[in-house]
Fold:
Amino acid sequence: MNQNNCQYERICRSEFAGLHSKIDRLDEAIRGNGKPGINLRLELLETAVAYRRRLTWIVIGAFISAGASAVMQLIQFLARH
Structure:
């Protein structure tokens, strides 16, 4: 048992400490710890993509509407002359 304790102290303790440190840094990166973390940044990006997608369809609709209106006016102009 004493040899196992010695092996733990010699090898495992520092490895476990390093792993705990890495896990703490990952947790801080994900949650943010007082600053924007990965979760919040991802939510903001997803929201921006949704707004951009909606704006794209509004612009496409406006161009289609303007094009259709221009074609109708051209047809009416040609029909009068």
